[in-house]
Design brief:
Radius of gyration: 19 Å
Number of helices: 4
Order of helices and strands: EHEEHEHEEEEEEEHEEEEEEE
CATH architecture of the largest domain: Sandwich
CATH superfamily of the largest domain: Probable inorganic polyphosphate/atp-NAD kinase, domain 2
Number of domains: 2
Strand order of the largest sheet: 7-6-17-14-9-10
CATH topology of the largest domain: Tumour Suppressor Smad4
Largest sheet: 6 strands, antiparallel
């Protein structure tokens, strides 16, 4: 039973939809908050995928995304035309009949043995701080260490394989896959020049920074970016905690 909902949109973007959502919640006698509190039963994120990615790692509850109509919205399974009907299904309907909660794998990054708080739903990028520079690194995966040169190491999830990684040349795979991918952006030398590497839920990849400076960016979010220096070690593995994304078909988000 849904008793409390987190509602969020990007500044004024989606404000009209947000007000309609709050009115529907009032009519259903469901309380709402604009803070991602631990006791919320449902999150409603209004905007595009950037809005979704910015908040998803803070949430353990199911998430319903509403595309306000101006952004890329792979995770946003509702739109201005159908969000009212879909929200009613979530509030009053039955899971696995009227709506579906898809559990999407996420990645966790550790810096020198300390976990970063954000979980990546799309990807973790370890790169130079300027895209025009080459990034030198040593990666270790499946017990094999290799030196890599390129524009950055991209470790991505199944859904991420359809986003940034796909644009960079990775072959997409089903979002329900249990595998994660590793690729080099613009590879110059190294094992990744031959193509991507896959690892499973129990595997991981370690990336040692060999540049004077670099950065770790999670899901393309500026405020989820951490500076690193030569010798720093970034380990990336399955988070073991999936994002719970609401869709309205049983086999796909869309």
């Amino acid at each position: 039973m849904i008793t409390k909902v987190f509602v969020s949109c990007k500044m004024e973007y989606g404000r009209i939809i947000k007000e309609e959502v709050k009115n529907m919640l009032r009519q259903a006698e469901v309380s709402w908050t604009e803070t991602p509190e631990d006791d919320v039963d449902l999150a409603i994120l209004i905007g595009g995928d950037g809005t979704f990615l910015k908040s998803q790692w803070r949430l353990k509850c199911p998430i319903m995304g509403i595309n306000a109509g101006k952004s890329v919205g792979f995770y946003m399974t509702s739109c201005p035309e159908d969000f009212r009907e879909n929200l009613f299904k979530v509030l009053k309907g039955v899971e696995s009949k009227d709506y579906f909660v898809h559990r999407l794998p996420r990645l966790r990054a550790e810096l020198n043995g300390e976990s970063l708080p954000q979980l990546a739903l799309n990807e973790v990028l370890v790169s130079p701080i300027y895209s025009r520079r080459i990034f030198d690194s040593e990666i270790t995966v499946k017990g094999e260490a290799t030196l890599e040169r390129g524009s950055g190491i991209l470790v991505y999830t199944p859904t991420g394989s359809n986003a940034f990684a796909h644009s960079a040349g990775a072959r997409p795979f089903k979002y329900s896959s249990k595998k994660f991918g590793i690729m080099e952006i613009a590879p110059y030398t190294g094992r990744l020049k031959r193509g991507r590497i896959l690892f499973g839920a129990k595997g991981s990849v370690s990336v040692k920074c060999l540049n004077n400076e670099g950065e770790v960016c999670i899901d393309g979010q500026d405020d989820e970016t951490v500076r690193i220096k030569e010798g720093d070690m970034v380990r990336i593995r399955s988070a073991g905690s999936p994002a719970r994304v609401i869709g309205f078909t049983s086999t796909a988000l869309k």
